[in-house]
Design goal:
With about 120 residues, the protein is mainly beta. The protein is about 0% helix and about 45% strand. The strands form 2 sheets. Strands 2, 4, 5, 6, 9, 10 and 11 form a 7-stranded mixed beta sheet that branches. The chain has a 4-stranded antiparallel beta sheet with strand order 1-3-8-7, with no helix packed on it.
Length: about 120
């Protein structure tokens, strides 16, 4: 059984930082791309960042220079370091993967595996 479990969300003031983690099991983690997706209240899902099996990274323009994605293949874990947070970063953040192919190019509706999400709230 595949499981993705996010942690690290919370409430932070604008300009602050948070670090998200995703613990995975049941995946051939080393061989697949992983993605962070977020959904803000009243909005659709947005692909925030992805990292390929060989460590190439992708970011949506709104988080470039502020967020850093990384992975630990030995621990089968995915991370997202979020700095200089803005109120517009408020959302539920999900760890997800299509389980095959290039995750940055795969429609979110085709993603096979999702975590339960962790709430990130940026507010003063």
């Amino acid at each position: 059984e595949v499981q993705l479990v996010e942690s690290g969300g919370g409430l932070v003031q604008p300009g602050g930082s948070l670090s998200l983690s995703c613990t995975t099991s049941g995946l051939t983690f080393t061989n697949i791309d992983m993605t962070w997706v977020r959904q803000a209240p009243g909005k659709g899902r947005e692909r925030v960042s992805a990292i390929t099996d060989i460590g190439s990274t992708y970011y949506v323009d709104s988080v470039k220079g502020r967020f850093t994605i990384s992975r630990d293949n030995a621990k089968k874990m995915l991370y997202l370091q979020m700095n200089l947070l803005k109120t517009e970063d408020t959302a539920v953040y999900y760890c997800a993967t299509p389980g095959y192919g290039r995750s940055w190019a795969t429609p979110l509706d085709d993603y096979k595996y999702w975590g339960q999400g962790t709430q990130v709230t940026v507010s003063s």
